[in-house]
Design a protein that fits this description.
Elements lengths: L8 E7 L10 E4 L25 E4 L8 E6 L8 E12 L3 E9 L5 E6 L3 E8 L9 E9 L4 E13 L15 H9 L11 H4 L11 H9 L8
Antiparallel strand pairs: 1-10, 2-4, 3-10, 4-9, 5-8, 5-10, 6-7, 6-9
């Protein structure tokens, strides 16, 4: 098998919170008072860095009570990926402490970013400890009293393929039906060459034609990299 590194960035997971709290995510209400992370925007906040619905924890709306609030993703499988990166947009006002943490296989939380001064915009955080890990969780942890709020939106986790599989035509780090469909869509195409990416990768043996030889090559690596 040919082993190497792909440059294309793959979206491992993303959410824009359009359906509220994503399935499998959890909210930990530190004081059990119902004043915690929510997608309902109770303080009617607005920002160019989010569109409703989004997730927010609003200390001002909650009359400045003590807050220790956690927003935690479900388990995310990064086992096929390296160069894992977390991206999200946010708006954060002080005085407060906002942490972004990561946990691997239910291990202790590791801090990857902390905000103690006002911050807003698109964030990009490298997650080296998530490289080729099958159980990754991310937490947004807010501690505040007599403060403002922290809102986040457009969460995305990306990575690059740790292994290059022949037949992975769409560069999603595995060989599956999506790749077969791509090959079939170029079936018997001729004049494959560098200028068209060898018929967008379907001409696996670079014979200038997408044929049975390419199908056999894809079949040889069928389901490599598929996560079970």
């Amino acid at each position: 098998m040919m082993v190497g590194v792909f440059d294309p960035v793959v979206i491992i997971y993303e959410t824009d919170f359009n359906d509220g709290l994503p399935a499998g995510w959890t909210i930990v209400d530190g004081y059990g008072d119902g004043k915690t992370w929510t997608s309902t925007n109770p303080g009617d906040r607005s920002s160019s860095y989010w569109t409703e619905p989004f997730m927010i924890v609003d200390n001002w709306w909650a009359d400045g009570v003590n807050m220790d609030e956690q927003l935690i993703t479900h388990s995310i499988n990064c086992s096929n990926y390296q160069s894992v990166m977390l991206k999200f947009s946010h708006y954060f006002l002080i005085p407060a402490v906002a942490d972004v943490d990561i946990s691997i296989h239910h291990g202790p939380w590791q801090n990857v970013a902390q905000y103690t001064y006002k911050s807003w915009g698109n964030q990009q955080i490298q997650l080296p400890s998530a490289r080729q890990q099958s159980d990754v969780r991310i937490r947004w942890h807010y501690n505040a009293q007599n403060s403002w709020y922290w809102g986040i939106d457009d969460v995305q986790i990306t990575g690059s393929c740790a292994t290059m599989y022949p037949g992975d035509l769409n560069h999603d780090c595995c060989v599956d039906l999506y790749d077969l469909r791509m090959l079939v869509s170029h079936w018997l195409d001729v004049d494959c060459a560098t200028r068209n990416g060898w018929c967008y990768g379907a001409d696996l043996n670079r014979s200038r034609t997408v044929s049975l030889h390419d199908l056999a090559n894809l079949a040889k690596h069928w389901l490599e990299g598929v996560q079970h």
